Amino acid sequence: MLLTGLQFPMQKNKLSLVKPSFESSSDVLFEKDKWELTALGYSDQAISSSSRSLNFEQIKNSWLKASGKKLLWNKRHNCSANTLVAYLRVLRAIDRVAYHEGEGDEQGLSMNVIRAYVDSLSNLSNSTKFVSTSTLNEMLASWAEYGTPAEVERLPSHLRVRQERKISVKALSPYVQSKLESLCTPADTYLKRYILIAMEIGPRGNELLHLKRDCLARHSDGWTLARNNSKNGKFQVIPISDKAASLVSAQIAESKTLAGQCNENSDYIFIHKYEGQAKVYSLRNINIQLSRFCAKSEITDELGKPVHLSTHMFRHTVGTNLINNGVTEYYVQKFLGHSTPMMTNHYAHINDKSMRKALSKANGSMCDIKGKIYDLQELAKQSEWIDANHDSELSLDAKWLRKKLSAHALPNGICSLPIHQECSHANACLTCASFRTSQEHLPALTTQRDRADKLKTEATSKGLTRQAELNRKTVENLNIIIRTLSGGCGHA
After folding, report:
1. Residues 6 or more apart from 269 whose CB is under 8 A from it?
2. What does DSSP assign to residue 266?
3. What pLDDT, on the 0 to 100 scale, is given for residue 11?
4. Could you tell me the CA-to-CA distances from 478 to 142, 248, 431 in Å, in that order?
5. Is 44 within 8 Å of 267 (Cβ atoms)?
6. For position 354, what pLDDT does the model report?
7. H-only helix segments in 147-218
8. Which of 181-185, 317-321, 375-379, 472-476 has the highest mean pLDDT?
9. What does the pLDDT read at residue 416?
10. Which of 152, 173, 240 is nearest to 201 (CA)?
11. What whole-number distance in Å separates Cα of residue 78 and Cα of residue 138?
């Protein structure tokens, strides 16, 4: 049996691949100016709904058109359909620039045209310029590999645009998350189920849309979900909650019903009926539906500003939530499917609760009479600040402020006992284990320590043993508190 494209060299004990010629593999397709992406081997799910074909008709330069077709044909095996669309976009732009520079009919790509193309990007955003020049650089390198004439094999370094690394926080705040969960209950539509599932597992948009009916599995320790990592093409299995598993199961059931109505056996769970056929929702469609959902529900953030949702925000939200809840970056990387830790680091931004806790201990913490430091989380639990009927949507800082304003206010601190509980101490006794204070009270505490020390001395001189002992304990406790709040050693 003859295997086309393979040679069996006698001098070597291994196979060596020989590339089939471009002409013999694509004669029919090469003659056309419009290529369907499915004809290049891409599945319907891998193709964007807005760009389903490659149209070379607008390229006037015959050499550039032929070279561009050869380039895209050779690149089809190792890049996405969207990348081919980006290559074609650059080819069209170069063709326009070449005619503007008077080189529209030239054979080959001159440095003058390359430089003019880069200059034409000057009014665009930095990110767009970076993507455009990077794409051109890849194209030049590929042309050099395939033997297509160009004056340079790589874009000169002085023409390349440096990528601006910006860490933009796109995560939804706990306040907005709470609102979304409330609005999506009951989860009686595909969009509500999409939102709730995405808020737990943080997939890339298409990864959730391309979940299949066999994605769920039940194990002894709980549910797992298998999804395809759209970046590396590998399947990834992650643990999910019973709630998320229930939502996925509901969507699977709905997809079976819809596929039955269309007389199709679609494996995907996020499908809709279009012209009598079961089609997977496009990412663009989901983003439009999210915008309409926000507008109709009038969702606003803490400042009253309208919330604008996108599918990728859920991914940022999950990454940020995991980091803030103490999950190590290694496990966050595995859960989200990042290939390197660099992407995961973006979620450890300034709202990280561990950083907030550290700053709280340095600046805004409180201590008791033993010098033990309390952060806001510990104080919230001890003092039972959360009122189930009224405080459920308040942030921790808001609860702390409410507590500070309405607690048992003392001249040099607060009492950590719940507001509804009576105190057996008649005054702000510094021997009370429920007493808490902070740096703002240091002047008053120092004055009180000095006064208590004098009282102890006077009581001792007059033989008032009980009064002397009480003031001695007060002085000792005040010394510990002052030393702790001033930066000395307390008990963490």
Report:
1. 211, 212, 213, 215, 248, 251, 252, 254, 255
2. -
3. 39
4. 75, 58, 9
5. no
6. 53
7. 174-183, 190-201, 205-209
8. 181-185
9. 53
10. 240
11. 13
